[in-house]
TrEMBL record:
Belongs to the TUB family. Residues 33-77 form the F-box domain. Residues 95-348 form the Tubby C-terminal domain. It comes from the Eukaryota. InterPro entries: F-box-like_dom_sf, F-box_dom, Tubby-like_C, Tubby_C, Tubby_C_CS. GO terms for biological process: regulation of DNA-templated transcription. This is Tubby-like F-box protein. Gene3D superfamilies: 1.20.1280.50, Tubby Protein, Chain A. It comes from Brassica carinata (Ethiopian mustard).
């Protein structure tokens, strides 16, 4: 059923709001989509939202509805659920919202060695060879004392002054420590600051300090005594994500405490396979090429012993071709955070390899 036929069906019903709107609008005037009654508009948008299968390119219909006018855009935002609940990436803001709780969003990264660029795509099928839906782009900038990866919404615009700029990843000189800086998705005023809300675990604007890039993640790689023959050991401190996100039973208690340590992620230790004579992890078919870059991140429960709280994978990254890598992520990190962590894996570590 098309939107126009749906409108005709709704108008045939004895609905008071529809009749009032029809009685006040002359027949000779052209129909205006922005003048639809709220209840009728909401039902139309709900049907558009539930009609597609949740994947692109059918997801374009929802985005098109949000672009009609301000009223439609605000109502679409109310109807479309966040990725944490729907597992759907619809708007650019979805790239900075936590992934789904019960599954992983399947993405892949294409590397261009000539231009030192990296493109993140949303997988549209279970195949590792589909074209995918473009999400983010990154460009590597080698400096005298560090390396920067600029992350943008557009592959042709890597300027930090652009509205497409999302953030950057900066490494130290030897490539063992990285800091992820997040920029504002929407330009704010000079007197605003991004602060975290405990209730929603999202970033809100506080009008007391200047805006700009701020650190959200610290990544470190430890010395590998086996060199390139052994697995890497990495640790990610998620500065803006509290540990209580992984412990629902502790969330209420932590809300009354000022000390809620940040979430720490650590790579899952691979096991040595005697027959294959290599280190192995179960990527469930998502990784096909052995590489020191491959990893799976889980939440750390005990900060002293670095013991994982569970075996649930929060982020996994692995090689499937010469310049093709899969990236699957889930709650509580976002696509932007996952992409930034994976970019650190491309850097050559002088002290670790």
């Amino acid at each position: 059923m098309t939107i126009r036929s749906l409108i005709q069906e709704m108008r045939s019903r004895p609905h008071r709001v529809v009749h009032e709107a029809a009685s006040t609008t002359p027949v000779s005037e052209p129909f205006r989509w922005s003048e639809l009654p709220d209840e009728l508009l909401r039902e139309i948008l709900i049907r558009v939202e539930t009609a597609d299968d949740g994947d692109w390119p059918s997801r374009r219909s929802v985005v098109a509805c949000a672009g009609v006018c301000r009223v439609w855009r605000m109502m679409v935002k109310e109807i479309v659920a966040v990725p944490e609940l729907s597992s759907k990436l619809t708007f650019p803001i979805s790239l900075k919202q936590p992934g789904p709780r019960g599954s992983l969003v399947q993405c892949f990264i294409k590397r261009n060695r000539n231009t030192q660029s990296y493109h993140l795509y949303l997988g549209l099928t279970n195949s590792l060879t589909d074209n995918g839906k473009f999400l983010l782009a990154a460009c590597k900038l080698k400096r005298a004392t560090c390396t920067d990866y600029i992350i943008s919404l557009r592959s042709d615009d890597m300027s930090r002054r652009s509205n497409a700029y999302l953030g950057r990843v900066r490494s130290n000189f030897i490539g063992t420590k990285f800091t992820v800086f997040e920029g504002n998705l929407v330009p704010q005023t000079r007197s605003s600051k991004m602060v975290k809300s405990r209730s929603s675990n999202l970033m809100k604007v506080s009008p007391r300090a200047p805006s700009g890039s701020y650190p959200v993640t610290h990544i470190s790689y430890e010395l590998n005594v086996l060199g390139s023959r052994g697995p890497r050991r990495m640790r990610c401190v998620m500065d803006t994500l509290p540990t209580s996100l992984m412990h629902p039973q502790r969330a209420a208690a932590s809300s009354n405490s000022l000390r809620d340590p940040p979430l720490v992620l650590s790579n899952k230790t691979p096991r040595w396979h005697e027959q294959l004579r290599c280190w192995c992890l179960n990527f469930h078919g998502r990784v096909t090429v052995a590489s020191v870059k491959n990893f799976q991140l889980v939440a750390v429960g005990d900060r002293e012993t670095e013991q994982a709280t569970s075996e649930r994978i929060i982020l996994q990254f692995g090689k499937v071709g010469k310049d093709m890598f899969t990236m699957d992520y889930g709650y509580p990190i976002s696509a932007f955070q996952a992409f930034a962590i994976c970019l650190s894996s491309f850097e050559t570590r002088i002290a670790c390899e």
